[in-house]
Amino acid sequence: MLSDRPSLNVPSANADIPLAELAAGAFARVVSVSTDDAAPADLGRRLAELGFLPGEAVRIVARGLMARAPIAVRIGTGTFALRLFEAACIRVCPEQSLAS
Amino acid sequence: MDATLSAPSPLIALVGNPNCGKTALFNILTGSRQKVANYAGVTVERKEGSLLTPSGLKIRILDLPGAYSLDPLTPDEQVTADVLLGRRASETPPDLIVCVTDATNLRQNLRLALSLKRLRLPMVVALNMSDIARRKGIIIDAGRLSAELGVPVVATVGVKAAGVQSLIKMLDSIVIPDRGSQPVPWQPLGRADIEHDQAEVRRILGVVGGDRLDGITFSDRLDAVVLHPLLGPVILAVILFLVFQAVFAWAQAPMDEIKLGVAAFGNWLGAALPPSLLKDLVVNGVLAGVGSVLVFLPQIIILFFFILVLEDSGYLPRAAFLLDRIMGSVGLSGRAFIPLLSSFACAIPGIMATRTIQNPRDRLATIMIAPLMTCSARLPVYALIIGAFIPRRLVWGGLELQGVVLFGLYLMGVASAMAVAFVLKRTGRSGRLQALMLELPAYHWPNLRNLAIGLWQRVEIFMSRVGTIILALMVILWALSSFPAPPPGATGPAIQYSIAGHLGAWLAVLFKPIGFNWQIAIALVPGLAAREVAVGALGTVYALSATGNDVSGALTPLIAQSWSLPTALSLLAWYVFAPQCLSTLATVKRETNSWRYPILMAAYLFAMAYGGSWITFRIATALS
Question: Which domains does chain B have, with CATH numbers?
Answer without folding.
Answer: 2-208 (3.40.50.300), 239-427 (no CATH), 464-623 (no CATH)
